[in-house]
Design goal:
The protein is an alpha/beta fold. The chain has a single domain, classed as Aldolase class I (TIM Barrel, Alpha-Beta Barrel), CATH 3.20.20. The chain has 12 helices and 8 strands. The protein has an 8-stranded parallel sheet. α5 links the parallel β3 and β4. The mean pLDDT is 97. The protein binds glyceraldehyde-3-phosphate and zinc ion. The site of glyceraldehyde-3-phosphate (G3H) has 14 residues, from β3 and β8. GO terms for molecular function: fructose-bisphosphate aldolase activity; zinc ion binding. Its cofactor is Zn(2+). InterPro entries: Aldolase_TIM, Class_II_FBP_aldolase, FBA_II, Fruc_bis_ald_class-2. This is Fructose-bisphosphate aldolase, class II. One of its GO terms (biological process) is fructose 1,6-bisphosphate metabolic process.
Length: 283
């Protein structure tokens, strides 16, 4: 079966490393991620977003992840990434996910608290742990002014209240990271992160992990980040390799011959991320 989300995030928080959530997009991603985690003796979270689940098929995705968890000798978790509403949370639970994220960050604070609390009350009796989002983690394509950006960041006083009222297990607090390709250098608000850690005490999650300088990731982990999410970096190296192989071999038609090299690139990238997050040899 799947590993325990809470156990491993707490282990990370206590020992000063972050568990990697690597998002899955297809079979090759799962295979690459599991091989990397196994070779590095690292606990690993497979993140599945609504978009990825629609693409793969929820039941296919779960079956592949379960097979991966059974065959692996390291703990594997299957986590719903950015669950948009109760409906998706229920779908994930019914199909055997080990933990979920409810992302109600688009809603006003009161409504985010209410929906997140509802999800926690539903999940905890079933032994399923919950991550929620506070502040808004934007896309890198959103062109925000300084004031607009500030308005998206998580306020420590809100985080304190949010955690106290919802009893959520992990918090994705917006501290300036973004999803996708950064145009410039991402500016993480470390002071804010430290303050949020201080008032919440629970494992914090860094979304938009692709493209953040290594030193900044390490600093964030030292300040309470116990889980880091990665997707874009893997998509990028996978696709670049497929492109390269196809360009060099215009007559190639066997998908295994270009997907395989793409898969190898994901594996190498995941190994890098496991080293960066300090998750190597934790199992
Ligand atoms: O929830 C997913 C992550 O936050 C992925 O972000 O694609 O920028 O690495 P990324
Ligand atoms: Zn995210």
């Amino acid at each position: 079966g799947f590993g325990s989300f809470n156990y491993w995030l707490r282990d990370g928080l206590n020992k000063g490393y972050a568990v990697a959530q690597i998002n899955i997009n297809n079979l090759e991603f799962v295979q690459a991620i599991i091989e990397a985690a196994e070779e590095e003796r690292a606990p690993i979270i497979l993140g599945a977003s609504e978009g990825a689940l629609k693409y793969m098929g929820l039941d296919y995705a779960v079956a592949i992840a379960k097979t991966a968890a059974e065959r692996a000798s390291v703990p594997v978790m299957l986590h719903l990434d950015h669950g948009p509403n109760l409906d998706w949370v229920l779908k994930a639970i019914r199909n055997g996910f080990s933990s979920v994220m409810i992302d109600a960050s688009r809603l006003p604070l009161e409504e985010n608290i209410a929906l997140t609390k509802k999800v926690v009350d539903l999940c905890h009796p079933l032994g399923i742990e919950v991550e929620a989002e506070l502040g808004r983690i934007t896309g890198t394509d959103d062109d925000l002014t300084v004031d607009e950006r500030l308005a998206t960041l998580c306020r420590p006083e809100d985080a304190e209240r949010f955690v106290a009222e919802t009893h959520v297990d992990a918090l994705a607090a917006a501290i300036g990271s973004a999803h996708g390709h950064y145009k410039g250098k991402p500016e993480l608000d470390f002071e804010r992160l430290a303050a949020i850690r201080e008032v919440t005490g629970i494992p914090l999650v860094l979304h938009g992990g692709s493209g953040i300088p290594d030193e900044d990731v390490k600093k964030a982990i030292s300040l309470g980040i116990a889980k880091m999410n990665i997707n874009t970096d893997n998509q990028e190296v996978f696709t670049a390799k497929v492109r390269e192989v196809l360009a060099a071999n215009p007559k190639m038609y066997d998908p295994r011959k270009y997907l395989g090299p793409g898969r190898d690139e994901i594996k190498a990238m995941v190994k890098k991320k496991l080293a960066l997050t300090g998750s190597v040899n934790r199992v």
